[in-house]
Amino acid sequence: MSDRPTLDDIRRAPKVLLHDHLDGGVRPATIVDLARETGYGDLPTMDADNLRTWFTEASNSGSLERYLETFSHTVGVMQSAEALSRVAYECAEDLAKDGVVYAEVRYAPEQHVSAGLTLEQVVEAVLDGFARGRREHGIRVGALVTAMRHQARSMEIAELAVRYRDAGVVGFDIAGAEAGYPPTRHLDAFEYLQRENAHFTIHAGEGFGLPSIWQAIQWCGADRLGHGVRIIDDIEVDGGTPRLGRLADYVRDKRIPLEMCPTSNIQTGAAKSIEEHPIGLLRRLSFRVTVNTDNRLMSGTTLSEEFAKLVDAFGYGWDDLQWFTVNAMKSAFAPFTDRLELINGVIKPGFAQLKWSGARPLA
Question: Which cofactors, by name (predicted)?
Fold first, then answer.
């Protein structure tokens, strides 16, 4: 093993994933199979390899319309309990093969009811798939149920999160276009979740700036920020010395986790390149940064590949990768005892073995 972690090395490391969309990580072959089974006829191609290429090209086109079209196809074939359970199981299997030991995967139940499923049936089908994944592959997967911020069903989805929190739903999220749809539109749902002692994260600071982050934290009480990239706008670097604004200082002081997704952030224009991604500065300033995939299909990525890109861009070593991973496990919505068990019993020993398995200790 070399001093710098390679992709193959990183795949062996026990990793934690907090921001991954179920409909953004479907296998192309599964999309084709489900399209044939359900009669879904809108796919651009029925060849799995060509379909993978189409998803990648559409996601990197710079066109928001084409990017959003990709999700219409994955959601389009995920309208039955059998399809949802299959996709959830395969998600768990794929993450386990990449070395992920704990994941929180999100999806919007309201987007999977067009063929007659109830919201409850959607949730139960996904939980069934995740449960099979744990039994067969050992990975722990918690579900985050998501409400779409441009719709008006957030209270229903929040109630689902509370109803199924002892069955595998670990929290709530809102997603969708930030501009024009501030999180405060769903304040009743967030207040309900707080009264019920439930966890929630909010997509903020990706497509919109500091006001989105400020509202998510100060008005809505978010436990975590989905992306949160634009917090960099509240940090000035003058002569090499960073100066934090009031909001950035608060986010760091309160240890509010940032669910950053480097490749996806570049695709959506939230960052220019991996080398220029705010994660580098935020890591140096000790923000509670976590590394995530967002949409594995659209971004053509895995969590190991996201880490490998950061290693290449910033020269990170095993200590840095462990720091990101422990951050993620600390920030998970799993019970404290489960987090502690994974940190002390799986993550730290796993990284220690990798770190010391070379010819000499890694710096």
Answer: Zn(2+)
- What is the C-alpha separation between 312 and 310, in angstroms, rounded? 5
Residue 215 sits in a domain of what CATH number?
3.20.20.140
Where in the sequence is the domain holding 211, given as residue range(s)?
7-26+78-355
Q: What angle do CA 175, 64, 22 make, to 5 degrees?
A: 40
Active-site pick, 110, 178, 206, 305: 206
Task: Report d(CA 95, CA 97) in Å as an integer.
Answer: 5
Q: Are 347 and 2 in contact (CB under 8 A)?
A: no
Q: Are strands 200-204 and 169-175 parallel, antiparallel or unpaired?
A: parallel
Residue 344 lies in a domain: yes
For residue range 172-198, list pLDDT tens digits in order.
999 987 777 788 899 999 999 999 999
pLDDT at 227 over 50: yes
Question: Catalytic: 178?
Answer: no
Number of domains in the chain: 1
For the entire predicted model, the pTM comes to 0.95
The residue length of the chain stands at 363
Extract the annotated binding site for Zn(2+).
Answer: 19, 21, 203, 294
Structure tokens at 155: 């209270």
